[in-house]
Amino acid sequence: MMPARARIARKLLELVEQRGRSIADGAVIEIRLTQQDLAAAAGVGLRSASRELPELRRRGLIDYARERFTVLDPVGLARVANELKRPE
């Protein structure tokens, strides 16, 4: 199974492709989206999304506020989206 962080990253990239608008610092997703909406769309729990989104922000890949998500580094986010689950 794909890690929650990778699922969220893939969903954000998909949304940018479908509903994104380029801005100076990346691309803003042109629909209002709560963390709960994003979690459901990515197939992860709200708790996982609440843990992973701040990490993606800390790494400078995304930003979000008031139901608006901005992808700041699509190449870096694509790397996260392609992370596979580590063998146990």
Give the helix/strand layout.
Elements: H1 4-19, E1 20-23, E2 26-29, H2 35-42, H3 46-58, E3 62-65, E4 68-71, H4 74-81
Antiparallel strand pairs: 1-2, 2-4, 3-4
Helix pairs in contact: 1-2, 1-3, 1-4, 2-3
Physical arrangement of strands within the biggest beta sheet? 1-2-4-3
- Number of distinct beta strands: 4
CATH superfamily: Winged helix-like DNA-binding domain superfamily/Winged helix DNA-binding domain
**How do the SSEs run, as a string of H and E?**
HEEHHEEH
Q: Tell me, what's the shape? A: globular
Radius of gyration: 12 Å
Secondary-structure-derived class: alpha+beta
- Strand count, sense and closure of the main sheet? 4 strands, antiparallel
Strand content: 15-25%
Whole-number mean pLDDT: 93
Which CATH architecture is right? Orthogonal Bundle
Low-confidence stretches: none
Total count of domains: 1
Tally the helices: what do you get? 4
Level-1 CATH class name:
Mainly Alpha
CATH fold-level assignment? Arc Repressor Mutant, subunit A
Helical content class: 40-55%
**Amino-to-carboxy terminus distance:** 12 Å
